[in-house]
């Protein structure tokens, strides 16, 4: 039987934060212990859909690579690679553009959100999900583990793959988004009704970066917005979004059931103890990652060697696939 193939991606658009880690990368690392074939991609072409400073982008790419290895991805158990180093991705994007109705892209909520927040937008921003579709279907991925915000893009990838298959004959597998039940949306600590995200927050006090120092992390958690009550229980009441978020973070990190998490805080008065405990488990998680990160980032040639191995592996699968697409579409 063929192994289940997993593909996911992350943008090098700034420091990795707790949301990326708990919502996505933690699952990627756990997948390595299962009988699966794993592909994890640093999607630098996606990052440039919002123009980047070249020097900063280059640093961000290596920094993210070091961070992924530090979080536990292994070049032996996974194919970890940089999207722009594997040409099939940009090429597949063009080919898929030809079969994608514009209206499908204009409907994407991430596009609509970003369009509102930016003064000017590139054609690439609209096209972003088509590039993402290519990433996924070039590898015939079965599973795409992502945070909830990406579900719509993976569903679009299915639709585009299906359309290509209908037009040119069976070519691609239809991928499934895999959303963790908890941790899928880590919210901003200062604004717990929006998700934790580096890109658009002017004030990043509500974002916990994996490279932030301990005191900054503790400060952000202590300042986290809660409510005027004192019940430490899971809740979908928007009023209690802050407490719910802190409990969610605690739950994913400790791996405890919701009942056990609530028991840990039974009888506590006020939210001080909750924040203290959350800060404690977050620091315990991040500290070893930060130490390993420092090792990886200080040896650039070793890091590049690991990424070369990944790119080489990725090409073995994606190049024949893009050729198959071109043949079926009538190119010579
Ligand atoms: P990005 O950094 O936007 O490329 O996201 C990389 C991965 O992290 C994707 O799977 C996202 O769904 C996930 N992710 C990003 N922000 C969050 C968040 N606040 N909570 C949970 N998952 C997230
Ligand atoms: N768009 C994804 C995000 O912002 C990143 C991404 C690009 C991705 N290509 C992918 C995720 C392919 C999963 C599969 O999080």
Structure description:
With 332 residues, this protein is mostly helical. The chain folds into two domains: 4-184 and 300-329, Rossmann fold; 202-294, Tyrosyl-Transfer RNA Synthetase (Orthogonal Bundle). It is 54% helix and 8% strand. The protein contains 13 helices and five strands. The chain has helices spanning 18-31, 44-47, 54-71, 88-97, 102-106, 109-117, 123-137, 151-168, 214-222, 241-254, 258-264, 272-297, 300-329; strands spanning 4-10, 36-42, 78-82, 143-145, 176-178. Helix 8 links the parallel strand 4 and strand 5 (176-178). The radius of gyration is 21 Å and the shape is globular. The site of adenosine monophosphate has 16 residues, from helix 1.
Write the layout of secondary structure elements.
Blueprint: E1 4-10, H1 18-31, E2 36-42, H2 44-47, H3 54-71, E3 78-82, H4 88-97, H5 102-106, H6 109-117, H7 123-137, E4 143-145, H8 151-168, E5 176-178, H9 214-222, H10 241-254, H11 258-264, H12 272-297, H13 300-329
Parallel strand pairs: 1-2, 2-3, 4-5
Helix pairs in contact: 3-12, 4-7, 4-13, 7-8, 9-12, 10-12
Tryptophan binds at residues 7-11, 43, 46, 132, 135-136, 144, 146, 150, 153.
């Amino acid at each position: 039987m063929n192994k289940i193939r997993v593909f996911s991606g992350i943008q090098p658009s700034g420091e990795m934060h707790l949301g990326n880690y708990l919502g996505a990368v933690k699952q990627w690392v756990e997948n390595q212990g299962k009988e699966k074939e794993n592909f994890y991609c640093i999607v630098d072409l996606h990052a440039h859909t919002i123009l980047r400073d070249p020097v900063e982008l280059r640093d961000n790419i290596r920094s993210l690579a070091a961070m992924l290895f530090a979080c536990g991805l292994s070049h032996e158990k996974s194919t970890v690679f940089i999207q722009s180093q594997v040409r099939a991705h940009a090429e597949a994007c063009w080919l898929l553009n030809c079969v994608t109705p514009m209206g499908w892209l204009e409907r994407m909520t991430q596009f609509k959100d970003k369009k509102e927040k930016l003064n000017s937008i590139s054609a690439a921003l609209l096209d972003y999900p088509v590039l993402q579709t290519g990433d996924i279907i070039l590898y015939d991925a079965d599973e795409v583990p992502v945070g909830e915000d990406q579900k719509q893009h993976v569903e679009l990838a299915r639709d585009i793959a299906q359309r290509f298959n209908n037009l040119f004959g069976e070519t691609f597998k239809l991928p499934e988004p895999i959303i963790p039940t908890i941790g899928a949306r880590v919210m901003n600590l200062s604004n717990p009704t929006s998700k934790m995200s580096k890109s658009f927050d002017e004030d990043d006090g509500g974002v916990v970066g994996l490279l932030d120092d301990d005191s900054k992390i503790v400060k952000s958690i202590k300042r986290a917005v809660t409510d005027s009550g004192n019940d430490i229980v899971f809740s979908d009441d928007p009023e209690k979004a802050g407490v719910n978020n802190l409990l969610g973070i605690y739950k994913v990190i400790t791996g405890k059931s919701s009942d056990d998490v609530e028991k840990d805080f039974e009888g506590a008065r006020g939210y001080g103890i909750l924040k203290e405990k959350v800060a404690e488990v977050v620091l315990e998680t991040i500290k070893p990652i930060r130490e390993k990160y420092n090792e990886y980032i200080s040896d650039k040639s070793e890091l590049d060697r690991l990424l070369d191995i990944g790119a080489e592996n990725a090409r073995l699968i994606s190049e024949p696939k893009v050729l198959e697409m071109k043949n079926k579409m009538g190119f010579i």
